[in-house]
Amino acid sequence: KNEVEQSPQNLTAQEGEFITINCSYSVGISALHWLQQHPGGGIVSLFMLSSGKKKHGRLIATINIQEKHSSLHITASHPRDSAVYICAVIRETSGSRLTFGEGTQLTVNP
Amino acid sequence: EPEVTQTPSHQVTQMGQEVILRCVPISNHLYFYWYRQILGQKVEFLVSFYNNEISEKSEIFDDQFSVERPDGSNFTLKIRSTKLEDSAMYFCASIGLGYTIYFGEGSWLTVV
Questions:
Q1: Exposed, middle or buried by CB within 10 Å (0-12, 13-18, 19+), for A23?
Q2: Which of B32, B38, B75 is nearest to B60 (CA)?
Q3: Averaged over B30-57, what is the pLDDT?
Q4: B38 touches chain A (CB under 8 A)
Q5: pLDDT tens-digit series, residues A46-66
């Protein structure tokens, strides 16, 4: 079983829809990252969370440490949001390395 | 916006050949990483580097792999004798104060 599980694996939305991507993890963590992988392969960090909630533009990320769960929300989705969104954690017991989820492929249609 | 740069962007090599992937991390960052992503799979950790030495490595990072920071700016990943299963995208990353992680654009390695 993967230590980091994401759902859904694939998500198709219409422009303007509110989107939620979920991440559950089974290990103790010191931080959780949400990353965006572009079609060309490049990876960009969106958020790093250790508690609570963060917002950047139309993106909101939340984490519940007790439930070992995080969500990434996109409000007013746009075709340019189409990408793979990856949840990755820093385990308490493994220094600063990231353990990655499988990613969620998001497609936003105009 | 600071950036991590990687070269080459794509390399095709014969099985058994040595490959060196190069990275220039962000200058004031302290932690450096190599990750890889086999096509269609999730990203996997290879190795982390701090204070001019390896701080962690995964089971993937066996004797055919090595890392160096030869001149204080470049950070290299060497694969001594490439195998077909080494074909992947290799990402360099670095972390500075605040723990925001920055990834390079990746180096596509194809072993034929």
A1: buried
A2: B38
A3: 94
A4: no
A5: 999 999 999 999 999 999 999
